Model the fold of this input.
Amino acid sequence: MKKCPHCNGIFSDNFEKCPQCDVALSDYTSDDKEKDDKEIEKQKIRKLITIGALVAAFVLSIEFKSIIGVKRTEYVNLKIKNEELQKQYDELSTAKDDLQKEYDTYKQKMKPYEEQQANAEQAAIADQNKKAAENAKQVAEQKQQSETHRDNMYGISNKDINNVNDTFSATNVRNDKTGNWRISKISENINMEEYALSYYKKYFKNDSEIHWIVNFTLKTTTCISVSGNLIWVDVHEYVDGEEHYADTLGSGTILSKFQIYTDNGDIEKLQ
Done:
């Protein structure tokens, strides 16, 4: 057997040249045939492996594309949804900031009016309280005036102690053993019997107290006490230094004595 070195064709020994290539043929031994057979088998195996690999790659590529396609679709949808929500959030956030700015501007503009309104409300409340107090005072005065006054009275104890400029301290008296004596020192030119009812209502904490009013202008010491519905007012001549001790307080000569009815302030002069 002979073999063409150009096209690898196999021919019988009768041929000297390759009928296809016109090339001199070489001897083709059994060893050469065995090698060619092995090479052909190898080529077949390589082809089969290549085809199998291509088929497997094709199948895997189809499955992989299918899997990736589903996940990517979900991812794309979620991404789009996220972008839409983010856009809505940004729009709402911007709208909120705009409203906050608008509110702050409005509040700043309204601040003077709010302060004015608050002041007006406070003034109205104060005015109402003042009117209520005036009405209460008027009612009390009318009630007092409406009471039937007694005959042959010296006067009415209806003057307000709050209108006196001096301060009534009503402090404890030194060496007072009862603990009920109180003393105030003033310089106003007033008659205490005219203010006794108002004084009693303001400064007496209980009816067991006895109050002494030393008036340095009138040179008098007035003693005020209470019994039942009567206020007793004794006006003494002031003795120099008597205000310092309970033993000397009220030691001066009695100048006048009054009893005042607590129901309407009627003053009855006793002495």
